[in-house]
Design goal:
Helix content is about 30%, strand content about 0%. By secondary structure, it is mostly helical. The protein is elongated.
Length: about 100
């Protein structure tokens, strides 16, 4: 994860984040909290940041898929084993494979 856990989930927009005792023990982003409260401004900022981030991630995934499509053909495009498989470099692509996942 690129962001600190304390800056993810509900804590990102909670007005109690600076004094919250639960944040010290976090192992995952918080998605439910009895103490959560927001002033609304952070939520709007966070929502726009999240939308911009999601749009960037989507365009990155599309770009990666385009690169994969150029590098691999057939079943190898999305196979879990393509990085270690000797067949994945076939110029015509692999169209039948017992190891495909």
């Amino acid at each position: 994860m690129t962001e600190n856990l304390k800056d993810q989930g509900l804590c990102r927009t909670c007005i109690h984040a600076s004094v919250c005792m639960y944040r010290e023990k976090m192992e995952k982003p918080v998605i439910q909290c009895e103490e959560f409260s927001s002033d609304g401004e952070k939520c709007v900022e966070s929502a726009s940041e999240n939308l911009a981030s999601a749009a960037a991630n989507t365009s990155n995934k599309i770009e990666q898929n385009d690169q994969q499509a150029k590098k691999y053909k057939g079943l190898c495009i999305d196979c879990k084993h393509r990085l270690n498989c000797l067949l994945s470099h076939s110029p015509s692509g692999v169209w039948h494979c017992e190891e495909y996942e």
